[in-house]
C-alpha cells in the first residue's frame, strides 16, 4: 500500500493530500530512508514522521484497505514520540 494511503487509513494523518505533501517534503522516513508518498509500506516497517516540533515513530502492524475509526489504532504501534525543544525561549 502507498505511504500516503496508509497514513490516511491509519488516521495518523487525517487527509491524504496532507500526507502526500509531508512525504514529498522529505519529512517521512521508512526504515531510516527518506520516503515519497508513493513508497510501498509493508508490515513491520518503521515509519518516522516529522511534525513541526515532534517526531512520531510507529511500526506497521497490519495493512487494511479500509478501517473504521475504532480499528485504525490497530494498524500501527507507537514506538516513540520525540519532542524538539526551543532552548532560546527559556530564560
Automatic annotation (TrEMBL):
Subunit comment: Associates with stalled 50S ribosomal subunits. Binds to RqcH, 23S rRNA and the P-site tRNA. Does not require RqcH for association with 50S subunits.
GO molecular function, one term: ribosomal large subunit binding
InterPro entries per record: RqcP, S4_RNA-bd, S4_RNA-bd_sf
Record's function text: Key component of the ribosome quality control system (RQC), a ribosome-associated complex that mediates the extraction of incompletely synthesized nascent chains from stalled ribosomes and their subsequent degradation. RqcH recruits Ala-charged tRNA, and with RqcP directs the elongation of stalled nascent chains on 50S ribosomal subunits, leading to non-templated C-terminal alanine extensions (Ala tail). The Ala tail promotes nascent chain degradation. RqcP is associated with the translocation-like movement of the peptidyl-tRNA from the A-site into the P-site.
Record protein name field: RQC P-site tRNA stabilizing factor
Annotated RNA-binding S4 domain residues: 1-63
Keywords for this protein: Protein biosynthesis, RNA-binding, rRNA-binding, tRNA-binding
Family in the record: Belongs to the RqcP family.
Biological-process GO terms, alphabetical: rescue of stalled ribosome
Gene name in the database record: rqcP
Lineage per the UniProt record: Bacteria, Bacillati, Bacillota, Bacilli, Lactobacillales
Organism expressing this protein natively: Philodulcilactobacillus myokoensis
SMART domains for this protein: S4 (SM00363)
HAMAP family hit by this protein: RqcP
